[in-house]
């Protein structure tokens, strides 16, 4: 067979195999949801009375949620007013009743927490609201004559939603599933069915991957420094110069259940010294090899580290000798030569030990502060706030390979769903990749914005706090227009709808204001096509910004009211500036010491109809030598590893003598 023909055949075979694998993977994902739809849900699980233990558990959870809210109100000037509004005596009484709870009172209390009053979006109120709703659901199932019929209706709706999702392969038909599953769980019904559905619709909805080289940009340094030597070894004063060359590197270590990162230091010190004792001056050259490692461990609970491991070895050789004596110089030289040979192993061992101890101590000192701050920030700025607000992922896995750090997470509360397919592949050229499912955005937005009112002043304040700048022009009112506000819908306030090569963003407001004027609910959406551009990727708006009341069908028989038309005109003007016709995606600017690696051009922007969006950034194009030198100098002036080397090795140079 012709060699060229064989190579072409080989290429076709490989590509065909890859295509077959991709087809099989897609089929496997579809089968999960499809098989769920094909097998009747709820089979063998008839309605069952709610146990006393379940009601007591719901009451206990409510009491647990009331505690933080009571503490908050106790420190608030308006705490007494809030307690009157929320009928605090009834709330605390119901929380202690267990099986004797009154479903009607619980539903009334639930409506108070869901009234949309400003402040009820705070996480302490939200936690009580959810606990009251779950308690009411359990009490209803225990006492309502219609409970069995309600159960049957929910199973029917669940089956219909799953079937529709399997048929379309999209997230939209599955939207009711989360709420139905939560109500079944709260009423202690169909545990096997709930588990089956969750096993398919609770896959991770966030994947983050960072290349080792990108992380290393904040740490990796070449060391090339000289320092004077002034030490005493075995009673001999030694002076001279030492030159140290080496590397400080970040190295990710393979680990399946946590991220392991090593900061390593490897250097060699070459020294030229002279030591004088009595009439003898000995000139020596020395080589000291230095190694240190600080291991950092990150998991879903904490950031921790292990003690520094350090190693050092010194080797010396005599390059010359002078004797300040007029008599017996040969004898003195002979004795000195023999003494030097006898003492060299001991001197080298002492020098190596001192170098090792100094490196270990200084490396620990220079890294411990930064690691302690990272560990504290991980708790105070990440875990604790997210847990308090209900934002912390229900599943969070952090791991490392020999070249990447990866984060896999799922964020979905009991009444929400997550991804139901695997994410798209990562472009191998990416140094930073984010793959998120549209459920992540929707779930997080619902927790953060659901029912919340945000004013123009709020947005301006947040903008000033985060960037130091004022309100973006697209969100400012015209000089002759009053300030605005939006109250987000409780369910799906912000939503991303991913399709093949297209993304659509929808904002749902239940109430709008412009000055003293109030307007009813309106949904605002804009769809964008993903298109390649020169050196980047751009989003091109597909048609006009769509602004209509919830459920309104353009071109149908229903007409907009005067108030709706007026609001639509106001929103069209404002959001037409927010959702521009063309958005060129700028390179990603990195912060802190990682800034030296940026900005990163976007390499990948993929949207799939199963709800996945994959974003990837490639390595920055090489800068000119002058620019690189300038950036390196700017970083080095505040560089922890650089400061460590300069401080430690200045003394270490002498240890090899």
Task: Describe what you observe in this structure.
The protein has 657 residues and is an alpha+beta fold. It has four domains: 1-27; 52-201, no CATH class; 210-382 and 642-656, no CATH class; 430-618, no CATH class. The protein is built from 16 helices and 21 strands. Strands 11, 12, 13, 14, 15, 16, 17, 18 and 19 form a nine-stranded antiparallel sheet that branches. The chain has a six-stranded antiparallel sheet with strand order 8-9-1-10-21-20. Strands 2, 3, 4, 5, 6 and 7 form a six-stranded antiparallel sheet that branches. A hairpin with a 2-residue loop joins strand 2 (221-233) and strand 3. It starts with a helix and ends in a 5-residue tail after the last helix.
Please outline the helices and strands:
Elements lengths: L2 H36 L13 H23 L4 H7 L2 H8 L7 H11 L9 H21 L3 H22 L8 H10 L4 H11 L4 E6 H5 L4 E13 L2 E18 L5 E19 L2 E19 L4 E3 L3 E15 L5 H60 L6 E6 L3 E7 L19 E8 H12 L3 E3 H12 L16 E5 L5 E6 L2 E13 L2 E3 L2 E12 L2 E6 L4 E3 L13 H17 L3 E3 L17 E6 L4 E7 L6 H12 L3 H13 L5
Helix pairs in contact: 1-7, 2-3, 2-6, 5-6, 7-8, 11-16
Query: Structural class of the secondary elements?
Result: alpha+beta
* N-to-C CA distance: 68 Å
Ranges where pLDDT stays below 50 over 5 or more residues in a row are 1-31, 624-657
Largest β sheet strand count, sense and barrel closure:
9 strands, antiparallel
Beta-strand content: 25-35%
Total strand segments: 21
Helix content: 40-55%
Q: DSSP helix count?
A: 16
Number of domains: 4
> What does the overall shape look like?
elongated
Radius of gyration over all CA atoms, rounded: 34 Å
Mean pLDDT across residues = 83
């Amino acid at each position: 067979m012709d060699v060229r023909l064989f190579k072409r055949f080989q290429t076709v075979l490989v590509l065909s195999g890859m295509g077959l694998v991709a087809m099989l993977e897609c089929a496997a994902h579809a089968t999960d949801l499809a098989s769920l739809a094909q097998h009747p849900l709820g089979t063998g699980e008839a309605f069952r009375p709610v146990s006393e233990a379940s009601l007591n558990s719901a009451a206990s959870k409510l009491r647990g949620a009331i505690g933080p809210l009571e503490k908050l109100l106790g420190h608030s000037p308006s705490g007494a007013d809030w307690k009157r509004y929320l009928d605090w005596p009834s709330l605390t009484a119901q929380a202690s009743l267990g099986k004797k709870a009154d479903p009607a009172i619980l539903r009334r209390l639930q409506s108070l927490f869901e009234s949309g009053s400003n402040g009820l979006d705070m996480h302490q109120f939200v936690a009580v609201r959810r606990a009251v709703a779950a308690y009411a659901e359990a009490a209803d199932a225990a006492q309502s004559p219609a409970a069995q019929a309600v159960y049957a209706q929910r199973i029917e709706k669940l089956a219909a939603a799953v079937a529709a999702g399997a048929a379309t392969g999209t997230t939209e038909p599955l939207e009711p599933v989360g709420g139905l599953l939560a109500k079944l769980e709260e009423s202690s019904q169909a545990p096997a069915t709930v588990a089956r559905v969750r096993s398919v619709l609770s896959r991770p909805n966030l994947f983050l991957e960072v290349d080792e080289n990108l992380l290393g940009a904040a740490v990796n340094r070449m060391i090339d420094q000289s320092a004077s030597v002034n030490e005493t070894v075995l009673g001999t004063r030694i002076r001279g110069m030492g030159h140290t060359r080496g590397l400080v590197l970040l190295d990710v270590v393979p680990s399946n259940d946590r991220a392991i990162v090593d900061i390593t230091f490897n250097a060699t010190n070459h020294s030229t010294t002279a030591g004088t004792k009595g009439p003898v001056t000995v000139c020596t050259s020395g080589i000291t090899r230095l190694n240190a490692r600080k291991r950092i461990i990150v998991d879903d609970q904490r950031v921790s580290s292990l003690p520094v491991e350090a190693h050092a070895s010194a080797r010396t050789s005599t390059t010359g000798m002078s004797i300040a004596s007029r008599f017996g110089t040969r004898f003195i030289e002979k004795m000195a030569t023999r003494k030097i040979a006898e003492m060299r192993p001991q001197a080298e061992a002492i020098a190596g030990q001192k170098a090792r101890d100094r490196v270990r101590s200084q490396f620990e000192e220079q890294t411990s502060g930064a690691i302690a701050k990272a560990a504290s920030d991980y708790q105070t700025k990440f875990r604790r706030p997210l847990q308090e607000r209900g934002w912390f992922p229900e599943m969070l896995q952090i791991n490392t390979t020999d070249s990447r750090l990866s984060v896999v997470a799922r964020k979905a509360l009991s009444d929400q769903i997550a991804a139901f397919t695997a994410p798209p592949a990562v472009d191998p050229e990416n140094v930073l990749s984010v793959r998120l499912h549209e459920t992540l955005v929707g779930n997080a937005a619902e927790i953060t914005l659901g029912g919340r009112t945000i004013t123009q002043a709020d947005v301006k304040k947040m903008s000033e706090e985060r960037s130091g700048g004022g309100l973006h022009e697209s969100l400012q009112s015209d000089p002759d227009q009053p300030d605005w506000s939006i109250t987000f819908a409780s369910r799906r306030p912000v939503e991303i709808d991913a399709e093949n090569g297209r993304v659509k963003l929808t904002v749902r407001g239940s109430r709008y204001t412009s000055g003293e004027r109030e307007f009813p609910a309106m949904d605002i959406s804009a769809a964008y096509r993903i298109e390649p551009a020169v050196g980047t990727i751009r989003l091109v708006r597909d048609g006009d910004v769509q602004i209509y009341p919830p459920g309104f069908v353009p071109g149908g028989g229903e007409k907009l009211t005067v108030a709706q038309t007026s609001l639509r005109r106001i929103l069209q003007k404002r959001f037409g500036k927010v959702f521009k016709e063309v958005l060129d995606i700028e390179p990603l600017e990195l912060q802190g010491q990682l800034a030296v690696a940026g900005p990163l051009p976007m390499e990948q922007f993929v949207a799939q109809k199963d709800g996945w969006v994959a974003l990837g950034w490639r390595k920055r194009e090489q800068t000119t030598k002058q620019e690189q030198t300038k950036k390196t100098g700017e970083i080095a002036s505040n560089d922890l590893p650089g400061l460590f080397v300069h401080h430690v090795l200045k003394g270490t140079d002498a240890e090899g003598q």
